[in-house]
Write a structure and sequence with these properties.
By secondary structure, this protein is of the alpha+beta class. Among the domains are: about 1-55 and about 285-335, Alpha-Beta Plaits (2-Layer Sandwich), CATH 3.30.70.120; about 150-225, Alpha-Beta Plaits, CATH 3.30.70.100; about 345-435 and about 570-640, no CATH class; about 490-570. Helix content is about 60%, strand content about 10%. The protein is built from 23 helices and 17 strands. The chain has helices at about 20-30, 45-50, 60-80, 100-105, 110-145, 170-180, 210-215, 230-255, 265-285, 305-315, 330-335, 350-355, 365-380, 385-400, 405-430, 455-485, 490-515, 520-545, 545-560, 560-570, 575-595, 595-600, 605-635; strands at about 1-5, 5-15, 30-35, 95, 160-170, 185-190, 195-205, 220, 285-290, 290-300, 320-325, 340, 430, 435, 440, 445, 655-660. The strands form 6 sheets. Strands 2, 3, 9, 10 and 11 form a 5-stranded antiparallel sheet that branches. Strands 6-7-5-8 form a 4-stranded antiparallel sheet, covered by helices on one side. A hairpin with a 2-residue loop joins strand 15 and strand 16. The protein is extended and about 130 Å long. It holds the Pfam family V_ATPase_I. Belongs to the V-ATPase 116 kDa subunit family. Keywords: Ion transport, Membrane, Transmembrane, Transmembrane helix, Transport. GO terms for molecular function: ATPase binding; proton-transporting ATPase activity, rotational mechanism.
């Protein structure tokens, strides 16, 4: 399998059919809309004959849906945060639906009414919250003045007046001493906090200047009492208002909790609103006139029949004109998007290719070639039967019991597939949660471990390098084939086949010297390596006008042999990670074994689960990252360029559901 072949789709239909056609396209989630005015289509005929009927883009509908989306999201947050629920909130179940069924169930008028009612409750709660803060603030200072037994504004006489206020506790004694120097003044302490003292001062108005001089010297914080009732009564009344406010708030929250019954409607409305917004955004790429519209897009060839059927289901055949064209060379180089297409075994590994870079439209998809290597490498680095079984069980349960978002489903498929090489390498290393497999069962001698992580370290190291050598040769072979297809025959020799010959020649020499002790093999290897090295040097000389520059280029290319040696060394991490993960698991088991029997079967059980969970996480993370690195650096660098533009079809958000072309049997799980 490879890059999905694309064709350019053009649809022309009456202007009043625009919404139905865009709905069909969006429901397929397999067509990328092109910008008509930035394509290579000659639109001069339309501009000449239909200029007066061209319709300018109207964003009012899009803005209306964006506003509704914001209101829905705010309402959902508000309901979940403030409403009182008598029972534990049940999660909204993720669903599998078609866009058509979702749109049919969407009642914009009903949703708008819900939003208005929720907004009203929200505003009432906001008023309550503001009032509560004000009352709490009043309660705080009324609590300090509640022991004042007069109403200041009612006790101000012709010759006397009342002054209320507070000073710092540290200045209390000095303040009182200075007040005694002012004749005819009555001082009453109302409240004493940790840092302040609150006073009521009754004084002669004729002495106000002297009093002001004293209070100014101690930063006397004057307080104006605003009520017509005693502070104690005001304090009690304030508490009653707070209690009443709490009752009102509780009642509002009870009213708000009734909207929990409509949560699913609101979630689905949010999903549908996203769909409307994306559809409106797509309209700016169309050519619209008063009479007709034109939409262009990229469609995978295997979706053509599906599009034709979807349009026929919604519109009479004679009301829609549709055509499919092959992409031009210019479009292939600059415009066409890339969508990978692989079988179910390889497809989950496409995310590794996407993380690096998508291939160009006319470039080979490296995913099918990379997949078997990644599987072997991942399994070799985790290499434990128990861990593999946990991966298998976890992925199977997630896939069978839950409707997963597409990205999470791909991850589940990814680890489901990788669980098998993990189990296989676990048998090879004889490891089950870090414990060695028994050598004898019922008198039968078992062959495990085939490779011991303690006694066969050198063998595992050599095996890691061999796997790397095979992958490097594969990458060079792919590069040579691709260059040959492009008729770059000399490049295929100097950049691929000659390097294969050089590496194989060196391998033959090593085998002849160290393994077979055969001079014939050594001689054969030297001949192959020398011929290949000469090819690497000579080809640039032939290709370059300046033979000196060609020679320099060829010699510099030959120097790249050191890079291949470094690449081979990188594959030793397969051995290192596999052995380290198993050793850590064995150390955890040993740690628990040293515990007394009582602790071993109580705390030890919890401890061993936690430790193995940590080791599993680190092993999977390490294998995932380092496995990807080996593909990106040591493998892709031999033949793969990338740089393709990702295929972005007109689709939905799929925040709470998976949108399919055809309705499937519903399965659900928590969002």
């Amino acid at each position: 399998m490879a890059v999905n072949k694309m064709e350019k789709m053009t649809i022309i239909a009456a202007a009043d059919r625009e919404e139905a056609i865009l709905q069909a396209i969006q429901g397929m989630q397999a067509i990328e809309i092109k910008d008509f005015f930035h394509s290579n289509v000659d639109s001069s005929y339309i501009e000449k004959h239909f200029a007066s009927t061209l319709v300018e883009e109207d964003e009012s509908k899009k803005k209306r849906f964006q506003s509704m989306l914001t209101e829905i999201q705010d309402s959902l947050t508000f309901i979940e945060r403030f409403s009182e629920s008598s029972s534990k909130k049940k999660p909204i179940k993720r669903q599998v639906r078609t866009l058509h069924s979702l749109e049919e169930s969407f009642d914009e008028h009903k949703i708008s009414e819900y939003l208005k009612e929720i907004a009203l409750l929200k505003s009432k709660l906001a008023v309550i919250e503001t009032t509560r803060k004000d009352l709490l603030s009043k309660e705080k200072w009324l609590a300090r003045w509640q022991y004042l037994d007069i109403i200041p504004k009612n006790n101000s006489l012709e010759r006397t007046d009342i002054l209320l206020g507070s000073i710092s506790s540290a200045n209390q004694s000095d303040f009182l001493a200075d007040l005694e120097k002012v004749p005819s003044i009555y001082v009453e302490e109302i409240y004493h906090s940790q840092n302040h003292v609150y006073y009521s001062l009754i004084y002669l108005k004729s002495q106000s200047a002297d009093l002001n001089e004293v209070t100014a010297g101690y930063s006397f914080n004057q307080f104006d009492y605003p009520y017509d009732i005693l502070p104690k009564e005001a304090y009690q009344k304030n508490k009653e208002e707070l209690a009443s406010l709490v009752k009102d708030e509780k009642q509002l929250k009870i009213s708000l909790s009734s909207y929990r019954d409509h949560l699913e409607e609101l979630y689905l409305a949010e999903e549908m609103t996203y769909a409307y917004i994306y559809r409106e955004e797509a309209k700016k790429h169309l050519l619209n006139t008063s009479y007709f519209f034109i939409v262009q897009g990229w469609i995978p060839v295997d979706e053509k029949q599906g599009l034709t059927s979807a349009l026929q289901d919604r519109l009479p055949q004679d009301e829609v004109y549709i055509t499919f064209d092959q992409p031009t060379n210019d479009e292939i180089q600059a415009d066409i998007p890339v969508k990978l297409k692989n079988n179910s075994l390889v497809a989950p590994f496409e995310m590794l290719t996407e993380m690096y870079s998508l291939p160009k439209y006319d470039e080979i998809d490296p995913t099918p070639i990379m997949t078997p290597f990644y599987m072997v490498f991942f399994g070799m680095m985790v290499a434990d039967i128990g861990y593999g079984l946990l991966m298998l069980l976890g992925a199977l349960l997630a896939l069978k019991l839950l409707v997963l978002p597409r990205g999470m489903k791909r991850f589940a498929d990814f680890f489901l597939i990788l669980s098998f090489p993990t189990i296989i390498w676990g048998f090879i290393y004889g490891s089950f949660f870090g414990a060695a497999l028994p050598e004898v069962i019922f008198g039968i001698h078992l062959p495990f471990p085939i490779l011991s992580t303690t006694e066969d370290v050198n063998t595992i190291l050599i095996l890691s390098v061999i796997f790397g050598f095979i992958q490097m040769l594969t990458g060079l072979m792919v590069n040579g084939i691709e260059l040959t297809k492009r008729k770059r025959y000399l490049d295929s020799i100097s950049e691929s086949f000659a390097w294969q010959g050089l590496l194989i020649g060196i391998l033959i020499v090593v085998l002849g010297m160290l393994v077979f002790s055969n001079d014939g093999l050594v001689t054969t290897g030297i001949v192959v390596a020398v011929i290949s090295a000469l090819s690497i040097v000579i080809v640039p000389i032939i290709q370059t006008k300046s033979k000196v520059k060609g020679l320099a280029k060829g010699l510099y290319g030959l120097y790249g042999l050191t890079g291949y040696i470094g690449d081979l060394v990188s594959y030793t991490r397969l051995m290192a990670l596999g052995i380290s993960g198993g050793s850590i698991a064995a150390a955890f088991n040993m740690l628990v074994e040293f515990m007394p029997p009582i602790a071993r079967f109580t705390v030890g059980i919890v401890l061993i689960i936690a430790l193995h969970a940590l080791n599993l996480f680190l092993s999977l993370l390490g294998a995932y990252v380092h496995g990807a690195r080996l593909q990106y650096v040591e493998f892709f660098g031999k033949f793969y360029t990338g740089g393709g533009r990702a295929f972005k079809p007109l689709k939905t958000e799929e925040k709470y559901m998976n949108i399919e072309k055809n309705q499937k049997k519903k399965n659900s799980g928590g969002i």
